[in-house]
Amino acid sequence: MEDVDLNVVVKWSGREFVIQYGPNDTVFDLKNFIYTQTKVKPERQKLLNLKFKGKTPEETCNLSSLKLKSGFKIMMMGSLEEEIEKVNSEPEGMPEVVNDLDIEDEEVAIENQEIYLAKIEKRIKEYEVKILNEFRPNKKLLVLDIDYTLFDHRSSAETGNELMRPYLHEFLTSAYEDYEIVIWSATSMKWIEEKMRLLGVSTHGSYKIAFYLDSSAMISVHIPKYGVLDVKPLGVIWGKFPQFSPKNTIMFDDIRRNFLMNPKNGLKIRPFRLAHLNRSTDTELLKLAQYLKILAENCDDFSSVNHRHWETYKPKRKRYH
């Protein structure tokens, strides 16, 4: 019987690559096959969920000993040489490059247009939400993006922890006291699940995630100045779970256009990039944990607050009669 080539699916930089290998190939051979398709050098590649007896396998390890099923999904971190050179040679003082559009709320007023409300109704009816943990009474709602919000998904690293935004678990533990937590990423559900597993979010003992939403829960809108954009309408959640509304919901995302349908409920978080350089100084999540606590304890309507000024927000004193 002839040996049959097997294959794995490598996820890198938002794309998927089908990599074929033979039963006698090693991890080093696999990295070279990956290099052929991605041009990421083997020494730059970090195959995060490739394990042998619970540990990262040596490059000499035979792939057959890993007992991979054909089609096994591998998440790879790694940078192209030209990208690394560009980062290393980037002059200081340059403005931050963000994968976003300079969209001001006053430029776009689309949240009440009937065509988009109809799309939201379609999502409410057809999109299936898998509840991971039951809701608790009287909790607010926090909706979180993943890439560049909780996780630097493009830098190279040996483990998911090295790409995790500092204080992530402390932040989620604090938020969970007052909020149900939802993860909404513009990727597929399988990769959301994989990232949450790599970061230790899905199995953490101090907090629980209510549910995940993926790209198929988003809708497309047309902005004359920018064309067609995919956005995350919170109305999908509100339509499915009426206990949540503009009054008790806040969304964090590093891309402002994602909350074009709900501009008063979105907070644009500073993107977490170049994890190897910024891990020791990034305290964004610690500060935001305090902001969420202040909102939960003092604000009756989240949509009445300008979240762009969250760092200087001071709640109005409640009057007691």
UniProtKB/TrEMBL annotation:
Keywords: Coiled coil, Hydrolase, Magnesium, Metal-binding, Nucleus, Protein phosphatase. Pfam families: NIF, ubiquitin. Its main location: nucleus. Residues 135-295 form the FCP1 homology domain. PANTHER family: UBIQUITIN-LIKE DOMAIN-CONTAINING CTD PHOSPHATASE 1. Residues 4-77 form the Ubiquitin-like domain. GO terms for molecular function: metal ion binding; protein serine/threonine phosphatase activity. This is Ubiquitin-like domain-containing CTD phosphatase 1. Residues 103-130 form a coiled coil. It is found in: Nucleus. Its cofactor is Mg(2+). It catalyses: O-phospho-L-seryl-[protein] + H2O = L-seryl-[protein] + phosphate; O-phospho-L-threonyl-[protein] + H2O = L-threonyl-[protein] + phosphate. Its EC number is 3.1.3.16. The lineage of its organism: Eukaryota, Metazoa, Ecdysozoa, Arthropoda, Hexapoda. GO terms for cellular component: nucleus. It is an enzyme of class 3 (hydrolase). SMART domains: CPDc, UBQ. InterPro entries: FCP1_dom, HAD-like_sf, HAD-SF_hydro_IIID, HAD_sf, Ubiquitin-like_dom, Ubiquitin-like_domsf, UBLCP1. It comes from Henosepilachna vigintioctopunctata. GO terms for biological process: regulation of proteasome assembly.
